[in-house]
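The instructor's notes for this session suggest beginning with a concrete chain rather than abstract definitions. Hand out the sequence below and ask the class to guess, before any prediction is shown, which regions might be ordered.
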Amino acid sequence: MKFRVERDALADAVSWAARSLATRPTLPVLAGLLLRVRGEQLSVSGFDLEASTEVDLEVAAGADGQALVSGRLLADITRALPPHPVDVTVEGSRLTISCGSAKFSLPTMPVDDYPKLPAMPTTAGTVNGAEFAAAVAQVAVAAGRDDTLPMLTGVRLEIDGDRLTLAATDRYRLAVRELTWTPSNPAAADAQVLVPARTLADAARSLAHSETLTIALSGGGSGTGEGIIGFAGISSGRASRATTRLLDATFPPYRSLLPSEWASAAEIGVPSLVEAVKRVALVTDRNAPVRLDFAESIVSLTAGGDDEGRAEEQLEVAFEGEPITTAFNPQFLLDGLSAVTTGTARLQFTSSTKPVVLRPEAGDGAEYTYLIMPVRLPG
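After discussion, reveal the predicted structure:
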């Protein structure tokens, strides 16, 4: 194998493919990246038996072939190379990288021991890459991180015609986002799957520059049984693909948690509320609640107590309904506010002990809902 490629193109491709490498691989070869040259195309791929990444780029090839080398080391080296064309050759059991006056020689691993990457599933449809990445980021923040509860570590992806619905919850908050997409077969566009949140967020973020992002499903595409979901996009002439196994778990029936009636509601500026929550939370432990007292035109924020530091702040608010007092984990509240892309957020209350719904200001058009459980106050 022998090829020449631009330094930045190689570094970007290797860095992207290395996203799927396991921190503690169960097999030594899973720490490697597979480089394969066919014609004038280089493919760089990684696989940890659950998720895979693969990227194709054009190179000036001298000889076809393939090699498996340490992925993280290759990523570190390609990022550190000087700004010159890179020559890569394989001779025997060594891979040599030459760039300007820099030269590296790496041992290769046996390619025959490397598992075969899963094939991209059948295309289900396409969506704007940037919009999908933004939607995933809004929802994934609410996914759980406890691997003993796998049903809460995923993002539920629902397909209904030309509508995509993403939902995630960790039992303390719930995030839901709807957006439109273009299904390959509108008549058969009906599926519900559970995708690992961290893998989905990483894939969506890294493919955000793709004007058209392809989503593909296998394993029937419905229910929560075994299957694979794939994502593919083209950006700056580079074709990238990612796959991951679906979670075999039942997602909670989240729609029943969303209230349909409100006793009171408030509209408040997002930047001012974010800064106020951050300030008053300084006097408390990380997860200690911040209290909010809503009344006509004013919300009072309080944190701390007599045995520790205490902070208070007031903000103007457009409020309707009976005055209400509630309290939240400050980080959970900040996560929801940070996901709102408008300057104003609307909070809807049923009672001080029931979940509060946070949405963008009315008429924004972004179909995002963030439901957060209040912290019960003493007394």
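Then share the key points. The chain has six helices and 27 strands. The first strand starts at residue 2 and ends at 5.
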